[in-house]
Specification:
The protein is an alpha+beta fold. 24% of the residues lie in helices and 26% in strands. Strands 2-1-3 form a 3-stranded antiparallel beta sheet. The protein is globular, with a radius of gyration of 14 Å. The protein starts with 7 loop residues before the first strand and ends in a 9-residue tail after the last helix.
């Protein structure tokens, strides 16, 4: 049986404050990319996070979109 396709989205933007994950301006969200593996997503996340180290309110996230597409199923189980 072929492996289930996974979908990891890496996005980022400037937050309102550091206590909440609320973006300051949704029109300025940086969509870094979509990745099939967590390892690829993590590498992209690290690269963007390191590039924005001077802005304390800039944050990047990995969204496990495969879990959102079918939340009742574990993608590793099939």
């Amino acid at each position: 049986m072929p492996e289930k396709q996974l979908l990891h989205l890496v996005i980022g933007g400037e937050l309102e404050d550091l206590e909440h994950n609320q973006f300051r301006d949704l029109s300025k969200i940086d969509l870094v990319g979509a990745y099939a593996s967590h390892g690829e997503a993590l590498a992209a996340w690290r690269q963007k996070a390191q590039a924005t180290v001077d802005n304390a309110l800039m944050r990047y996230f990995i969204i496990h979109a495969h879990k959102l597409l079918d939340p009742g199923k574990d993608p590793q189980q099939g």
